[in-house]
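During the first year of the project, the team set up a workflow for recording each protein of interest as an amino acid sequence followed immediately by a discrete structure-token representation. This format lets reviewers and collaborators read both layers of information side by side without switching files. As required by the reporting guidelines, we include two representative entries from the current panel. The first entry is reproduced here exactly as it appears in our internal archive.
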Amino acid sequence: MGLKCGIVGLPNVGKSTLFNCLSNAEALAANYPFATIEPNIGVVNVPDERLSKLAELVNPQRIMPTTVEIVDIAGLVEGASRGEGLGNQFLANIRDTDAIVHVVRCFEDGNVVHVNGSVDPVRDKEIIDIELQLKDLEAVEKKIAKYQKLVKSNDKEIKKGLEVLEVFKAHLEEGKSARSTPVEEEEFRFVEDINLLTIKPILYVCNVDEDSVVDGNEHTAALMEAVKDEDAEVLIISAKMEAEIAQLETYEERQEFLEMMGLNNPGINKLITSCYSLLKLITYFTAGEKEVRAWTIREGMKAPQAAGVIHTDFEKGFIRAEVIKYADYCEYGSEKAVKEAGKLGVEGKAYVVEDGDVMHFRFNV
């Protein structure tokens, strides 16, 4: 199961530099607006220490991490909802993503021009919010017009849908994003088919200078205050520093650099795992001599559906799942030892897979 996050922001905020660090795809990172025109796409391995530990215990022929798909989307400018700049292309590209990583410039540098002439992360955030909200409002109004023609049929579902759509319309007109619309969770079904932009989960990334990467600065504080009522995480990352880390050849050199900066892990690792959490995704593992592999599933997925991520036949012919908890695998050191200790669970179709489960599926086609 793939994860597709779109990196968005105004021109010249550090999106492409951050993307380069994530994907090593060498997207053009130039000091002028619209350096990124076509969306660059990179596939990034999700860092997971558990995978490395299982590989140490099993010593497989190969190790396969799970991945995240990252899309670097062209910088948006004010008026994008009306087609200004690369607006139409930007909006179409972001519609194809599952989540939004909104990069906001929180550093001062006279050598890097700002499209609006000054550094103001709250203003920059609001520019993009407004453009996305206007496009969503347009989509909601079109669906309201459609339902108004059908409401005379006295169909209860149409009437209910019209009521819910009016709530979305009023919410967007207040300058608020669709994800926070005050409706019941099941009522979001009325807007599923119009794929609203501001309904997607969001992660804010404050791009700072190296001196601000640990504690932030006045710009990051202002942004955090502005989004405190949103259901959104805020990360502080220095894209410039991440680029320097990416150029170091060895793991030891990277760790030494991080320690010098007062950090435990690269910001990129935090970004990837935050994207994972953003979409309510978890990982289970398969472990054997040929391969130790991480698999991505959604929280709450049951064993047959989790098996189907490997192959559809596994789901169709599912018989049972043999499950070892990650902690037990580490404690006993091998599948054989886990079995001998009576710690291997045999689960049926109703079993809800947990993050870190090591699984083996029995199936019949």
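The second entry, processed by the same pipeline in the following quarter, appears below.
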Amino acid sequence: MYYFLANLYGGSGKAVKTWNKVKAELVKRNIEYTELIPEYAGHATQIARELTAGTDEKIKLVIVGGDGTLNEVINGIVDFSKVEIGIIPTGSGNDFARGLSLPRSNPLEALDIILKSDGSRKIDLGRSTCGTNSRLFAISSGFGMDAEVGTKINVSKIKTVCNKLHLGSLSYSLLTIKILFSMKTMNARITFDDGEVKNVEKLIFLAGMNCFAEGGGVPMAPDAVPDDGMLSVCIASGIPKWKTFLKFPLLVAGKHGNKKGFYIKNCRSLDIESEPEAYSNTDGEFIGQGSRVKMEILPGILTVLY
């Protein structure tokens, strides 16, 4: 049995059109399915929890939505061994589909891949903890500017305007520039699982990446892959904000790895202690604002239909 969880409130109207196409194709192929429609923020988490609690059935759960809907779903799954996830992207970023090289603009092609999958592909998830709050992530976890942008983008007028112009990914870049010049940098102590301790002055952001890109295709960690059991951590620090602004095109092009002010490292976990505190998020979903954050990888936990 396939369960299709369709977020009809995302993608500036794109989601409804996409879901209608998918439903028509399911009827055409005589595929049995159950429709699940989240009605409010956090509802997808509740639906996933209720669907996966106390069942021996192998559940094929297909998300018709964006990265935020996916994040809600994975944070509601009770037993990952009984769930296979499919994705038909309708969001403005679609970085999970980008990271797995899945179709982002052809829903019927994405559906065909899901229906043909044997459910043998497994990928990693990350987990980020800020204070007493903890969330899983499929794409990335941010701290500092990265997290502040990811958190505020969903309520930003910039995103609303860009989506109407079919320029959704541009909204991330514009809001990043705005927040860069208004935020306070931090001093931080970062401890990696291999014992390395990095003391950082003027920390602008730290991104723990499971996929290579976030924010609608910004390649924070160009070599990151979601099935290697590792987080790829990208740190920007120690440079004036105006120089960071000038280097932003390098970041967008994925050419920042060897440039002054950037540091990229693979790890299984890391702990951040900062002064002052900063925003923390997962896949654009706010966790908290604090000075102590832990990020870690959970290898091969999620089965994906692709």
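For the second entry, the following points were noted during internal review. Residues 125 and 298 are 5 Å apart (CA to CA). The two ends are 17 Å apart (CA to CA). Both points are flagged for discussion at the upcoming steering committee meeting.
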